[in-house]
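Backbones bend. Shown next:

***
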Amino acid sequence: MNKSWIISFVFLLVMACGKDDPCKDIPNIDLDLDYKSLVDQIHSVEDTAALSVFFEENPVVRDYFFLAADYPSKAEMLTEVFNLIKNPFVDTLYQQTKQIINEAQLEQDLEIAFKRIKSYYPEYKVPKVQTVYSAFGNDVFFSDSLVVIGIDYYLGPEASYRPNVYDYLLVRLTPEHLVPHIVQFTSLKFNDTFDNGERTILEEMVYYGKALEFTKTMLPCLPDSLIMGYDSETLASSIRSEGFLWSYFVDNALLYNKDPLNLTKYIDERPGVPEIDPICPGRIGQWMGWRIIQKYQEEKDLDFTELMKLTDANDILLQSRYRPKNN
């Protein structure tokens, strides 16, 4: 594990956890996570025949991470992938993946998160977890029974090579963000929503707000900035501007707007929302949805599993008494 990650992660834990903080309360649940790293196995294949056997045993890795369908034939795919794995630059990526990602810690963190999920949802069947590196073929494959993580995606700024994605996405592809990403993916299974084909901005806000609250509940040690994927200053600025942000949505009649372009502007991935302010971060609607959910829980203190079942966004807003003031 990279020393700087150890220091920063421990610092986050110390700052976020108090003596009686629930982050230290790990459910006493018998869970032996089925976790398997395939990183060394991929790196050590000796020829295309061995690679073919590996892919037959791991079709998700073949199809999703090494993009087998993009090749005209199996033979060409095996040759190209084998050459890729043996490329000196990719070998550097492998070495840095081993240095930066502590897989024992990753396995432990995921196991604790899954225990917390099972403490709320005893019927939840924990998926198998596998890790791979593929020279940025993909980041995460997610299903009810299997999660495959391309951990080379999450090496952070210390790595010599990074995925070819926009900078505003790249800042969240770090070791610290990996587990929150997996937990938020998991929330989809439990996050009920009223889906009539056309969702309003408010409905999207509340949906993402519940997803973020789910992630925070299962990872109570992590700071909100890491859950949200904002840096600490961006989050602090959003909090300071919360009343102004809310007024913008209300004054521009956006809450019940169903225009897909507006959903993209205020909810989806973007580097920023200049329509509101030059420094307004992207996904600001998701963050405001989380604030609505947090305020709702302050007012109602609803059982968490019941909260995740709520689908009436307008009622949630009204019951929350969410009315942030301008600073």
